[in-house]
């Protein structure tokens, strides 16, 4: 009798245990339903059921480290884990669920200790570049664009850079007849800054464009030599390019250089001084803006009326980059020529001799007329249009490339620039075709292009190179 009673009691306890397990299992799903519906009337009972019963037994065990393998631990108002990463901690680690060791490893838990607690990974505030961390508000410059770390994200400008490695690669990989280069002096400048600081010649005024050009079709183009350059014809009398740096005054540099060459040629080498563009920049201020731009007609007008001293007397930027106050003045002498009444700004130069030229005249756009003028009287001045790829020119016969991929709205933007044409030539290209070119001097220093010079396609008015060509008679 006692044995039957004992068996009956054991069966009752077993049935109660199974019923509790079933209720706890159902409550896990009910908790989700209550959370979604907003009905929390029975949430406390569910919490207690979960607290009393299994965690990992219901959730299941996860291999490795899985920070999503969690179960709500209402007794501690926290989350506990059921991943195998818990096994890297001593038995009883506090961030593992109470039944983790018994369910997942069949071991008895031990009381947790502070050193067993897993520290959650902290969220690092800031931004990263090449796996390097930068704090909030950090700023770094990438070529011509700058980026700032704002709310853990980079906020960057999107300017078109003057030097674009992708454009250089496209040019050099293609068969365009010329090569490009990454110039350090242009790195960090955007296209607008390049146009505003490296050019500086105003568009030719209507008076110049309406001027009747000098046309002499006496000699055909074929009667000229295939190759001619002024420094071979007049060695020691032709002046190499200077560097205008970030002073937008090509109007002054090209005028002074053409005038200096012609004075040396017309004097048969008696006067070979290079003339001072700084004299024009600082003193020719009537409707001229120094390093912010000027007109070539205004420059020639000043040269006729007041003249210029030598580059040695009035060197470039002797005071500062955008020095504007004029440090030279002159008066007419008895013969009607200008004489300086101030010493040279460069106190080491004794000669303050002033050189003058006449007003400019325009040469026709015909190749033969331009070639004749150069061969007989020396280099001429030309106004050309500059596109973005011209800044990158290193060698070869330049022509603007219209067909490059990756076009932008500013890809074919252009601005006027004045240069000095010193000669011409002819070469055969890779396909055996005859390529005609002009040889011209820029004013970006001898590290740019072919020692400061460049060749450009001739006979097709490339970049308007043959549209506005002028010269002047210089007297002593």
Automatic annotation (TrEMBL):
SMART domains, A to Z: Pept_C1
Coiled-coil region = none
Which positions carry the signal peptide feature in this UniProt record? 1-25
Every SMB domain range: 58-108
One GO molecular-function entry: cysteine-type peptidase activity
Which Gene3D superfamilies does this one have?
Answer: Cysteine proteinases
Organism, scientific name? Anolis carolinensis
| Protein known as | Tubulointerstitial nephritis antigen
Cellular compartment(s): Secreted
Q: Keywords assigned by UniProt?
A: Disulfide bond, Glycoprotein, Secreted, Signal
Q: Does this entry carry the keyword Disulfide bond?
A: yes
Q: Which GO terms describe its biological process?
A: cell adhesion; proteolysis
The record, for Pfam families, names: Peptidase_C1
Q: Which family does it belong to?
A: Belongs to the peptidase C1 family.
InterPro entries per record: Papain-like_cys_pep_sf, Pept_asp_AS, Peptidase_C1A, Peptidase_C1A_C, Somatomedin_B_dom
Q: Name one GO cellular component term.
A: extracellular space
């Amino acid at each position: 009798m006692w044995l039957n009673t004992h068996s009956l009691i054991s069966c009752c306890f077993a049935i109660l245990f199974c019923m509790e397990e079933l209720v706890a299992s159902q409550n896990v799903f009910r908790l989700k339903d209550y959370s979604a519906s907003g009905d929390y009337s029975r949430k406390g009972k569910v919490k207690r059921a979960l607290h009393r019963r299994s965690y990992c037994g219901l959730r299941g065990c996860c291999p490795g480290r899985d920070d999503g393998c969690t179960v709500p631990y209402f007794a501690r108002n926290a989350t506990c884990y059921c991943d195998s990463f818990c096994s890297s901690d001593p038995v009883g680690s506090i961030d593992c669920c109470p039944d983790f060791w018994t369910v997942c490893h069949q071991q008895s838990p031990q009381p947790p200790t502070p050193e067993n607690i897993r520290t959650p990974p902290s969220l690092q505030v800031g931004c990263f570049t090449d796996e390097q961390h930068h704090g909030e508000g950090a700023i770094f410059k990438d070529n011509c664009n700058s980026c700032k770390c704002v709310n853990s994200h980079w906020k960057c400008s999107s300017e078109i850079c003057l030097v674009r490695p992708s454009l250089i690669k496209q040019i050099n990989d293609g068969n365009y007849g010329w090569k490009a280069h990454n110039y350090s002096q242009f790195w960090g400048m955007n296209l607008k800054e390049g146009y505003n600081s490296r050019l500086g010649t105003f568009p030719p005024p209507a008076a110049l464009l309406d001027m009747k050009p000098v046309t002499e079709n006496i000699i055909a183009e074929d009667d000229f030599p295939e190759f001619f350059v002024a420094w071979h014809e007049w060695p020691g009398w032709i002046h190499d390019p200077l560097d205008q740096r970030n002073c937008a005054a090509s109007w002054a540099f090209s005028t002074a250089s053409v005038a200096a060459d012609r004075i040396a040629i017309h004097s048969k080498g008696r006067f070979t001084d290079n003339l001072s563009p700084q004299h024009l920049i600082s003193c020719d201020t009537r409707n001229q803006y120094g390093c912010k731009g000027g007109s070539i007609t205004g420059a020639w007008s000043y040269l006729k009326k007041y003249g210029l001293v030598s580059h040695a007397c009035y060197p470039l930027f002797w005071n500062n980059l955008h020095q504007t106050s004029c440090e030279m003045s002159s008066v007419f002498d008895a013969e009607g020529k200008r004489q300086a009444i101030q010493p040279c700004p460069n106190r080491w130069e004794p000669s303050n001799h002033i050189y003058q030229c006449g007003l400019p005249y325009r040469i026709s756009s015909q190749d033969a007329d331009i070639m004749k003028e150069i061969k007989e009287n020396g280099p001429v001045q030309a106004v050309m249009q500059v596109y973005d790829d011209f800044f990158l020119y290193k060698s070869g016969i330049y022509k603007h490339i219209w067909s490059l991929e990756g076009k932008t709205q500013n890809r074919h933007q252009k601005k006027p620039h004045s240069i000095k044409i010193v000669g011409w030539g002819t070469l055969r290209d890779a396909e055996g075709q005859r390529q005609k070119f002009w040889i011209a001097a820029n004013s970006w220093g001898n590290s740019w292009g072919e020692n400061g010079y460049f060749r450009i396609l001739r006979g097709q008015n490339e970049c308007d190179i043959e549209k506005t060509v002028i010269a002047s008679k210089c007297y002593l």
